[in-house]
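Postdoc handover notes: sequence design on the structure in folder B. Input tokens:
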């Protein structure tokens, strides 16, 4: 059963997005958080501040939560902030490899395989989009879903038939086999 306060809060949140973007605390705080993170990334570009490193002025959040000294919502800024700019390439490389596998799978498959891959694509897309405003790329549930979807797509990718070069050993053996069987059955060479 849905409690009246939950429904009221959901409607208030859905209808109040414009106001939140103009003057709201959550969006405004995340913008401040991102600005502070970008400043610190500029100061410590190679190694970052470390996983538990403090990077922001806590007075600006008013002490709202325990981890505010080092927590950052934006997953894309988390890696370069905590581990340096090179670590920030990790999510981009994973996304790039995923996209390349998807393109090959969609070109070569259809039916059940295509729908499974489409479902995985939806899950992964939501994680990568949600990572802009949330800790999805650094939280256990987000990494679990991302890992499972990537594993399913990688397994599908590996099961696709590979192209064989006309000069490859397998192609030559197949051609010789056809010639041999033709001669054996009495057909002219």
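Designed sequence:
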């Amino acid at each position: 059963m849905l409690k009246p306060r939950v429904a009221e809060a959901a409607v208030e949140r859905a209808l109040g997005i414009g106001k939140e973007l103009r003057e709201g605390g959550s969006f405004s705080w995340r913008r401040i958080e991102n600005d502070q993170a970008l400043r610190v990334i500029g100061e410590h570009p190679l190694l970052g501040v470390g996983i538990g490193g403090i990077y922001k002025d806590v007075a600006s959040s008013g002490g709202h939560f325990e981890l505010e000294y080092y927590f950052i919502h934006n997953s894309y800024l988390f890696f370069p902030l905590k581990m340096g700019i090179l670590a920030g390439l990790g999510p981009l490389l994973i996304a790039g490899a995923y996209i390349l596998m998807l393109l090959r799978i969609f070109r070569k498959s259809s039916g059940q395989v295509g729908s499974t891959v489409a479902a995985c694509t939806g899950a992964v897309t939501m994680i990568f989009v949600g990572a802009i405003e949330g800790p999805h790329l650094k939280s256990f549930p987000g990494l679990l879903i991302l890992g499972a979807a990537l594993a399913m797509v990688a397994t599908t990718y590996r099961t696709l038939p590979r192209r064989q070069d006309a000069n490859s050993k397998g192609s030559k053996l197949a051609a010789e086999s056809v010639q041999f069987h033709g001669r054996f059955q009495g057909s002219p060479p």
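Context for whoever picks this up: The radius of gyration is 26 Å. Don't rerun without checking with the PI first.
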